[in-house]
Amino acid sequence: MSTIEKKSLKVGKYVNTDFVDAFIRNYKQERWIHNSKRLGKEDSLSCWYSVEELEEFIATIKQHGADGIRLYFGAYPNETDRVKGKDGRQSMVLVATRSKEELGGVSHKDVYLAEGGKANILAYNMANYCPPFCNPAGGIGSSIGVTILENPDGLSVI
User: Fold this and answer.
1) pLDDT in tens, 23-42
2) Which of 35, 42, 96, 119 could form a cystine bridge with 61, CB 3.0-4.6 A?
3) pLDDT band at 138, cuts 50/70/90?
4) What's the structural domain count of the chain?
């Protein structure tokens, strides 16, 4: 009897502190500062979910045959009751995906569920975003970091 080996779908890797610091600093310089100026307020730099809710989302998507999660970047619409305080700020939505072997390689298709005769995407959102919803206790994780920018007028701290 032969065993069918499942191909690994892993694409990411662990990174170190230097990488994360440079990654965030580059984002702040290249995107965040411009987004914040355009919005007239600080745009979000991060979002937070508990391990419990991520495990629940992963269990749910596995029940529906998903084998991955795609993170879509986006921005909330103008203020509504559902997203009060998040209006206009950038966000991410987690979308369940299923891998499919195709002629050109593997593709990852978004998963939709039939609900009431309508296809509805299997997705998760509404995290705590920072800013504006940063840790009020001021402990570890409350800071969004500091970046010093060199510009024609001197140094700027962002």
Assistant:
1) 888 989 888 899 889 888 88
2) 96
3) very low
4) 1
